[in-house]
Amino acid sequence: MNLILFGPPGAGKGTQAQRIQQKYGARQLSTGDMLRSECESGSDLGQMLKSILDAGQLVPDEVMVKLVAYAIQDDACAEGFILDGFPRTLGQAEALDEMLREIGRAIDHAIILEVDDGILLDRIRNRAAQTGGARSDDNAETLKKRLEVYHKQTKPVLPFYEKKGILRRIDGMAPMDDVTSQIDAVLGKKAAA
Ligand code: AMP
Predict the structure, then answer these.
(1) Which of 4, 31, 39, 45 is most buried, taking the most CB atoms under 10 A from its CB?
(2) Taking the model in full, what pTM does it have?
(3) Whose CA is nearest to atom 12 of ligand 1?
(4) 85 lies in some domain
């Protein structure tokens, strides 16, 4: 089972992706986590990436497409994958489509966790408090930019999947467990006991 999770920053994609991974065996591929671990390595590439992440901007499509192409073909994704944070532009979506076609795979469901902008700042502040400020982009100023980028560049990707008939809209403002149940309903399996 191959999935995409869409949603604005703070929508709960990471939490839900982890739950799906545990339940269904598909592997979570968080592009944000991949980029952050490169940033932490302190390499030249990592430093360049950190400045992009801290500005709330997007890493160029060519870099992202290569990163994801490599990850998807890893044995860990043999039972499927959950893309958490990718694609974020139409160019990435088109490249993903072509890449999957070449390897004889396809996206089964694209799920969007819909959350109003107004409550995201509180969620990001909570995450920053819970993680001791682990993410340097979890602050009000960068969130504003990340949201702007989400609306301008990522939301226009949704019709691409809507046209394929695989886009599912979920109320991401419901309590976390209810969001999980809504996802289970889409994936057609009962929640694990
Ligand atoms: P996330 O952890 O998904 O919120 O991503 C954190 C940051 O990593 C984003 O604000 C972007 O700077 C960068 N990033 C993650 N995924 C992508 C992507 N698919 N394309 C471009 N930049 C990305």
Answers:
(1) 4
(2) 0.95
(3) 53
(4) yes
